[in-house]
């Protein structure tokens, strides 16, 4: 019997771990800074020394509540921590403090676009937990070392319902979550540094079926591209098994992005029993209505709200608005600079073209931007007033981008003001006409292009500081009046 005509549907749910942007860890005062020499951001609590006791970081709860509210979740009024017991060298206590029975938030959703149509992806629950340490495998010595700097860094785990049907929907969902969380300032969500990680639960079923297929869980995904490739790879692997009449085994698989292949890590057939029980060293978190109101009042304007407001307030295209609001940092610079100079479209052009180009060139993220909105607004004013021309403006912007240089002072100190003085230009233009009789004759003979060459020569003589329109106008006039 030929099964090749069957149509399959992919069913995907995600578990997303997000490292929270607190200065200290979840249960101790150690630093959460990325990097640092191995085992230097540690203490008896986060290395699991006997007799040490955890103390909950209040900021973790507030960030978790903020993310819960921004993703339409119900906040759990009495929330508790549980111990998840397992033995692994990166887990020094031999248990992880997490939440199973009463997580901080439940029953939420985010809206994504799927093929141009809005779609809700439901969030089953969201819980707080501590991160584990990091194992480093030394191929040379054939040994494994452990760094506990990451141990105890606060995480929220956001568990979706199996509502996604393609890699595109998964990426849309992750981008939406990332934007919300970055806007809240709750995490920088850098996938390459592991501050946002996604495990993908995926199964396939025949189109039209309401039964779920057997799912696998894929780990080790540290970029959107890797996630998309892993989804396509796993979907095809499961379909091939079903087509061959073989069962899909429920297991955890590890994705190797270099080989574009996943391989089994451990089977979930005899799912390891984590023996969850209530964490005895931490009291329940009782969340009052007042506390929820306080967090709600502090929530910033999120991207979807900004887009609506930009339509009303700024005369910029929707495309510009979408690119600018993709990063809260760029949106904040845009709003402040536009308020200072009153020219939103000009500000938007500098951000969308030059700023994004320089970020890419220097391999930087928007959060690495150092320049102030005030200096960008001054540059727009200088250009619009004709004080500097556009090529000088680009040179000045590179200085602003690198060192937040004051453009007015820089232009003054380096003599970059556009020469609008007819007297100063007149002698230069006379010399250009005398030195280039052929181009003058060509222009007079009807070759419009010849004037472009003459303008270029004049600009060169003025070291690029003249007003090109004025130069062109004066040249045309002088050529017409000349006898050559």
UniProtKB/TrEMBL annotation:
SUPFAM superfamilies: GatB/YqeY motif, Glutamine synthetase/guanido kinase
Signal sequence extent: none
Record-listed E.C. numbers: 6.3.5.-
One Pfam family per UniProt: GatB_N
Keyword Transmembrane annotated: no
UniProt superkingdom: Bacteria
GO molecular function: ATP binding; glutaminyl-tRNA synthase (glutamine-hydrolyzing) activity; transferase activity
Record's catalysed reaction(s): L-glutamyl-tRNA(Gln) + L-glutamine + ATP + H2O = L-glutaminyl-tRNA(Gln) + L-glutamate + ADP + phosphate + H(+); L-aspartyl-tRNA(Asn) + L-glutamine + ATP + H2O = L-asparaginyl-tRNA(Asn) + L-glutamate + ADP + phosphate + 2 H(+)
GO biological process, any: glutaminyl-tRNAGln biosynthesis via transamidation
Asn/Gln amidotransferase domain mapped to chain residues: 332-479
Keyword annotations: ATP-binding, Ligase, Nucleotide-binding, Protein biosynthesis, Transferase
SMART domains in UniProt: GatB_Yqey
Subunit and partners: Heterotrimer of A, B and C subunits.
Function: Allows the formation of correctly charged Asn-tRNA(Asn) or Gln-tRNA(Gln) through the transamidation of misacylated Asp-tRNA(Asn) or Glu-tRNA(Gln) in organisms which lack either or both of asparaginyl-tRNA or glutaminyl-tRNA synthetases. The reaction takes place in the presence of glutamine and ATP through an activated phospho-Asp-tRNA(Asn) or phospho-Glu-tRNA(Gln).
NCBIfam families: gatB (TIGR00133), PRK05477.1-2 (NF004012), PRK05477.1-4 (NF004014)
Family: Belongs to the GatB/GatE family. GatB subfamily.
Protein name: Aspartyl/glutamyl-tRNA(Asn/Gln) amidotransferase subunit B
Underlying gene: gatB
